[in-house]
C-alpha cells in the first residue's frame, strides 16, 4: 500500500529525514517509536503534505501513485488520514459542517454524489459511539474549548467517519489519561481491518498494550535504525533508547 | 456641469432651480435653503479634514456629473435582473429607482398602522416638519447638508403606536443612469411608541458605463420602546460611488439593530452611521461586514453618542479584504458626563487576503462619565496556515477550506441576522467572493 524509499526531507534548510525506507501493507499495524527530535512527527507531516517541509530525495508510492506529487487534500482523498498531535481549534466552523464538507469533497473526488442528510446523520451516530464522542460537541465549533482528551477522541472520530486506507496517528496517546487511552485504543482496534493499515507514532509502550503492532520501528536521527515486533517496544520500555543510540554511533564509526 | 469647474464651485453658484427639486413643494424650501448655506459654509472635505483623512473624496468627485436626478425607469425584465442580485425574501417590497418609489413594481402592505409613502408627498406631514434635517450629527456633515438642499425624493415610513408588520419590508434601491449622475435620495422613518419593524435595504446599480454617485440620507426616529431591525446591503457594480448617512435617534427603552453589509464591487462606499441615545435603557447593536475586492474603498464611519444614563451599545465590524482594496473603520463613542452606567463596546477585526490590501482603523473613545464600562479592540490578520492545513488534510480543497474560514470569520455577524434567507444569501456571497479570490 505504502512504499517509502530513501526519503530525505528538510525544514528551513535543516535536514530532518535522512533516508527513510519503509513498506506498509494492507491490514498491518506499524508503530514508530524513537527519542524526542528523531523525526517521527516530521515523517507524518511529510506524508500528509505539510507545506513547510521540502523533500530533497527519495520517493513515496501510495497505492501506485506518487504521493509527493499530490496536494494535501488529494492525499486525503486518496485515503491518507493524519490524526494530529495538536488538533487545531477553528472557532465558527461547526464540527458537523466541517465533517460534512470533508466527506462530500472526498466523495466528489471519487465521482460520488453528496451524502444524503439522513445517511450522514446515521453514520455520525454510529461512529460517535465508537469513541464515546459526546454528541453535544457535534454542533460546537471545531475543537474550540475541547479538553485534550476530547480533541484526541475527535481525531479518531473523524478517522472513523472519513474511512481512510492508511491512518497515521501522531502521538494520539499524548495527554490522555488511562481511561481515555483505553477508549481511543478500543476505537482504533474496531477500525482495524484487512484492507486498512495504520502507522502509530508514540513515545510510550503503554499505547501498544492496547493497540498491538505487527511491526515496531525505531527512528533515530532521521532514519529507521531498528525494526522488530512488539517485543522490541517492551525492550525499549525497559532499557530506554541509549543502547540503540550507541549501536548506531558504533556502526557509523566502523 | 463642465469638467473645468470644480464640483464645489459648480454647486455653490446657488441653489439650483426648482427643476432640480422635483417635489416642487415649498413647505420645506426654507429648510433646504438653510441646509444649502450650511453646505457652502462647511465646504467639501479633503484629506486634511479629520473625518475624511483616509478617504480622498475629491478624487471621486473629479468626473463630471449631472445633477438633474433623472426619474429613471426600469422594465419588468430589468427588475428580474435586479432580483438575481438581491436576497429573495418573504417580504413586502418597495422598489425605488433613483430614489423614487415605483408603486406599480412594489408590493406594499395594505393600508394600516404602517404607512409607506414618498417623502415629497409628505412635505406637510407634522413628523416630517418635526424631524427633517434635525439630527444633531448631520449638522456638521457637508454631504448631508447637500442632500437636504437638493434631494429629489425618497421614502417616508411611519409606524403608528405599537404597530408592526407580519413580514419584513425589503427596500430595493435601484440606480440607473445613461450619463454620470449625482443622485440624492432621502428617507425618513418614524417608529412611534412600541412599534416594531424589520427592514432590509438592498442597493443595486444597473449602469454599464456611466458613474452613479449616490449621496443618500436616512433619518430614523425610534420613539419610546420602539424596535427596528435594519439591514443594509450594498452590492452595486464597480462604477458606483456611495456616501450613505444613516442617523438614528433613540428614545427611552428603544432597541436598534443595524447591519451594514458592504459587498463587491462599488469603487467607493462611505457609510456614516450615527446613533444619538437621548433616552435611557436603550439597546444599540451595530454590526458590519465588508468584503472588498479590486480597487474598492470601503469606509465605515460610526458614531454612538451616549447622552443619558443606562444605555447599552455594542458594535462589531469585520472586514475581509482582497486585491488592492482599502478599508477604513472609525468608531467614535462619546459618553457624556451625565451618561453614567453606560456600557459601550466596540470591536473591529480584519482579515487581509492579499499583500496589497490595507486597513486603517481608529477607535475614538471620549468618556466624560466615571461609572461606565467601555472597551474597544482592533485586530488585523491573515489566514492561519495551520487551520488551512488541518482542513486540507481532511480532504477539503483550498477553495472550500478558505470559504469555511471566511464564513467562520464572519459568523459573529451573520449569526445575528434574524432572517434565514438573508443568512443563506450572505453565505453564498461569501462563497462566491472566496472562489473569485482563488480563481483570479
UniProtKB/TrEMBL annotation, chain A:
Residues 2-246 form the ABC transporter domain. It comes from the Bacteria. Keywords: ATP-binding, Nucleotide-binding. PROSITE patterns: ABC_TRANSPORTER_2. The keyword ATP-binding applies. InterPro entries: AAA+_ATPase, ABC_transporter-like_ATP-bd, FeS-cluster_ATPase_SufC, P-loop_NTPase. GO terms for molecular function: ATP binding; ATP hydrolysis activity. PANTHER family: ABC TRANSPORTER I FAMILY MEMBER 6, CHLOROPLASTIC (PTHR43204). Belongs to the ABC transporter superfamily. Ycf16 family. This is Fe-S cluster assembly ATPase SufC. It comes from Chitinophaga oryziterrae.
TrEMBL record, chain B:
One of its GO terms (biological process) is iron-sulfur cluster assembly. Pfam families: SUFBD_core, SufBD_N. InterPro entries: Fe-S_cluster_assembly_SufBD, SUF_FeS_clus_asmbl_SufBD_core, SUF_FeS_clus_asmbl_SufBD_sf, SUF_FeS_clus_asmbl_SufD, SufBD_N. SUPFAM superfamilies: Stabilizer of iron transporter SufD. Transmembrane segments: none annotated. Residues 20-171 form the SUF system FeS cluster assembly SufBD N-terminal domain. Residues 176-409 form the SUF system FeS cluster assembly SufBD core domain. Belongs to the iron-sulfur cluster assembly SufBD family. This is Fe-S cluster assembly protein SufD.
Amino acid at each position: 500500500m505504502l512504499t517509502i524509499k530513501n526519503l530525505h526531507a528538510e525544514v528551513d534548510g535543516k535536514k530532518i529525514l535522512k533516508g527513510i525506507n519503509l513498506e506498509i501493507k494492507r491490514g498491518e499495524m506499524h508503530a514508530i517509536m524513537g527519542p524526542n527530535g528523531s523525526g517521527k512527527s516530521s515523517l507524518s507531516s511529510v506524508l500528509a503534505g505539510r507545506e513547510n517541509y521540502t523533500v530533497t530525495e527519495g520517493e513515496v508510492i501510495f497505492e501506485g501513485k506518487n504521493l509527493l506529487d499530490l496536494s494535501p487534500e488529494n492525499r486525503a482523498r486518496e485515503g491518507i488520514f493524519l490524526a494530529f498531535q495538536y488538533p487545531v481549534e477553528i472557532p465558527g466552523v461547526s464540527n458537523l459542517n466541517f465533517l460534512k464538507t470533508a466527506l462530500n469533497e472526498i466523495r466528489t473526488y471519487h465521482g460520488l454524489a453528496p451524502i444524503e442528510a439522513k445517511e450522514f446523520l446515521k453514520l455520525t451516530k454510529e461512529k460517535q459511539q465508537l469513541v464515546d464522542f459526546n454528541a453535544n460537541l457535534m454542533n460546537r465549533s471545531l475543537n474550540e474549548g475541547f479538553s485534550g482528551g476530547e480533541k484526541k477522541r475527535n481525531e479518531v472520530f473523524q478517522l472513523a467517519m472519513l474511512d481512510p486506507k492508511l491512518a497515521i496517528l501522531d502521538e494520539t496517546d499524548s495527554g490522555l489519561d488511562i481511561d481515555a487511552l483505553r477508549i481511543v485504543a478500543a476505537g482504533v482496534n474496531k477500525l482495524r481491518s484487512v484492507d486498512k493499515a495504520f502507522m502509530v507514532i508514540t513515545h510510550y509502550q503503554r499505547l501498544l498494550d492496547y493497540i498491538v503492532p505487527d511491526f515496531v520501528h525505531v527512528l533515530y536521527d532521521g532514519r529507521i535504525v531498528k525494526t522488530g515486533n512488539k517485543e522490541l517496544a517492551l525492550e525499549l520500555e525497559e532499557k530506554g533508547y541509549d543502547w540503540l543510540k550507541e549501536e548506531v554511533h558504533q556502526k557509523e564509526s566502523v | 456641469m463642465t469638467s473645468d469647474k470644480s464640483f464645489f464651485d459648480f454647486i455653490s453658484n446657488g441653489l439650483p432651480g426648482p427643476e432640480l427639486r422635483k417635489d416642487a413643494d415649498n413647505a420645506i424650501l426654507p429648510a433646504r435653503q438653510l441646509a444649502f448655506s450650511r453646505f457652502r459654509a462647511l465646504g467639501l472635505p479633503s484629506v486634511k479634514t479629520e473625518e475624511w483623512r483616509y478617504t480622498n473624496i475629491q478624487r471621486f468627485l473629479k468626473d463630471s456629473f449631472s445633477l438633474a436626478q433623472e426619474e429613471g425607469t426600469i422594465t419588468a425584465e430589468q427588475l428580474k435582473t435586479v432580483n438575481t442580485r438581491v436576497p429573495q425574501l418573504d417580504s413586502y417590497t418597495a422598489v425605488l429607482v433613483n430614489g423614487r418609489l415605483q408603486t406599480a413594481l412594489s408590493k406594499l402592505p395594505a393600508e394600516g398602522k404602517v404607512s409607506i409613502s414618498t417623502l415629497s408627498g409628505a412635505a406637510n406631514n407634522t413628523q416630517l416638519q418635526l424631524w427633517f434635517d434635525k439630527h444633531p450629527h448631520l449638522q456638521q456633515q457637508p454631504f448631508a447638508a447637500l442632500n437636504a438642499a437638493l434631494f429629489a425624493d425618497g421614502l417616508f415610513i411611519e409606524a403608528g403606536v405599537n404597530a408592526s408588520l407580519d413580514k419584513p419590508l425589503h427596500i430595493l434601491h435601484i440606480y440607473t443612469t445613461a450619463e454620470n449622475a449625482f443622485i440624492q435620495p432621502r428617507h425618513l422613518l418614524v417608529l412611534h411608541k412600541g412599534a416594531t419593524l424589520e427592514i432590509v435595504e438592498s442597493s443595486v446599480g444597473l449602469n454599464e458605463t456611466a458613474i452613479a454617485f449616490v449621496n443618500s440620507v436616512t433619518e430614523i426616529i425610534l420613539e419610546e420602546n420602539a424596535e427596528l431591525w435594519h439591514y443594509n446591503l450594498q452590492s452595486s457594480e464597480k462604477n458606483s460611488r456611495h456616501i450613505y448617512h444613516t442617523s438614528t435617534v433613540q428614545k427611552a427603552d428603544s432597541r436598534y439593530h443595524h447591519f451594514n453589509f458592504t459587498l463587491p464591487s462599488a469603487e467607493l462606499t462611505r457609510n456614516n452611521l450615527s446613533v444619538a441615545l437621548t433616552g435611557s435603557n436603550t439597546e444599540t447593536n451595530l454590526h458590519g461586514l465588508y468584503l472588498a475586492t479590486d480597487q474598492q474603498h470601503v469606509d465605515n464611519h460610526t458614531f454612538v453618542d451616549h447622552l443619558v444614563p443606562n444605555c447599552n451599545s455594542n458594535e462589531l465590524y469585520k472586514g475581509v479584504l482582497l486585491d488592492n482594496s482599502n478599508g477604513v473603520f472609525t468608531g467614535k463613542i462619546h459618553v457624556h458626563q451625565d451618561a453614567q452606567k453606560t456600557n459601550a463596546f466596540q470591536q473591529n477585526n480584519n482579515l487581509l487576503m492579499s499583500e496589497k490590501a490595507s486597513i486603517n482603523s481608529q477607535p475614538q473613545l471620549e468618556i466624560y462619565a466615571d461609572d461606565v464600562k467601555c472597551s474597544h479592540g482592533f485586530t488585523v490578520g491573515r489566514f492561519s496556515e495551520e487551520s488551512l492545513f488541518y482542513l486540507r488534510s481532511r480532504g477539503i480543497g483550498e477553495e472550500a477550506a478558505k470559504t469555511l474560514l471566511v464564513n467562520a470569520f464572519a459568523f459573529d455577524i451573520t449569526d445575528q441576522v434574524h432572517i434565514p434567507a438573508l443568512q443563506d444569501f450572505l453565505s453564498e456571497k461569501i462563497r462566491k467572493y472566496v472562489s473569485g479570490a482563488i480563481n483570479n
